Amino acid sequence: MRAVVAAIAEAVDVPVQAGGGLRDEFSAEALLDAGVSRIVLGTAVVEDPGMLRRVAHRHPGRVAVGLDARGGEVAVRGWTAGSGRTLEEVLAAVEDAPLGAVVVTDISRDGMLIGPDVAGLTAVLAATRHPVVASGGVGSLDDLRALADVADGERTLAGAIVGTAIHEGVFSVREAIAACGR
C-alpha cells in the first residue's frame, strides 16, 4: 500500500500519518521519503528496537510508537500475539528515542464504544516524557471530555483517536473537537 499512501500524502494539504506492517527500515524510510509526515511503528518496537532508534534519530519527531495493549501486555503482529512485555517496560525502552508521540491503544476497548481506560492512560502519561495519544473505547462526547482532563502535572494527552463513534454517527468530528475544548 506504500504507493497509495504516498499518493494520498502528495494529494492532500494536511499532514499524513501512516502505520501498520512497518517492520523494516526500508519500508519506514520509503514512506517518510514519500512525504508522509509521521510513521507509526508497533511490532518493530518490540522485535527490532535498534531499527526504531535508527529511523527515529534520522527523522526526529517523525516516528511514533504504537503500543497496542491488552491487560497491560503489549500485543504484536496485528494484535495476534502477546509480546510478554508490559506497557511500562516498552515505554522505558524507548524513552531516549526522539519520538513524535506514543499512541496507546487499549485493544480490549477498541471499537467497543465502552469508554477509554482513563486510569491506565494517566499512568502512561506519567511513565513517559513523550506526547501520548489515546486510542480505544471512545463512545461519547463525555469520554472525550474525560480524556481532555487526563493529566500528569502540567502535561495532558496530546490527542485521541476516535473511529467507531464517528463512523457510526454517534457524534461528528466538529462535535468531538468542541467537546475537547479545542
Brief descriptors of the model:
9 helices; alpha/beta; 8-stranded mixed beta sheet; 23% strand; 39% helix; single chain; two-stranded antiparallel ribbon; 182 residues
Care to describe what's here?
With 182 residues, the chain is of the alpha/beta class. The strands form two sheets. Strands 1, 2, 3, 4, 5, 6, 7 and 10 form an eight-stranded mixed beta sheet that branches. A two-stranded antiparallel sheet has the order 8-9. It is built from nine helices and ten strands. The radius of gyration is 16 Å and the shape is globular. The N and C termini lie far apart (33 Å).
Overall geometric form = globular
* Mean pLDDT across residues: 95
SSE topology string: HEHEHHEEEHEHEHEEEHH
Cα(first) to Cα(last) distance is 33 Å
- Please bin the fraction of helical residues: 25-40%
Number of helices: 9
- Structural class given helices, strands, pairing? alpha/beta
Contiguous uncertain segments of 5+ residues: none
Strand content: 15-25%
The total strand number stands at 10
Q: Taking Cα atoms only, what radius of gyration do you get, to the nearest Å?
A: 16 Å
**Oligomeric state:** single chain
Q: State the major sheet.
A: 8 strands, mixed
Question: Secondary-structure blueprint of this entry?
Answer:
Elements: H1 2-11, E1 17-19, H2 25-33, E2 38-41, H3 43-47, H4 49-58, E3 63-70, E4 73-76, E5 81-86, H5 87-94, E6 101-106, H6 118-127, E7 132-135, H7 141-148, E8 151-152, E9 155-156, E10 159-161, H8 164-167, H9 173-179
Parallel strand pairs: 1-2, 2-3, 3-6, 6-7, 7-10
Antiparallel strand pairs: 3-4, 4-5, 8-9
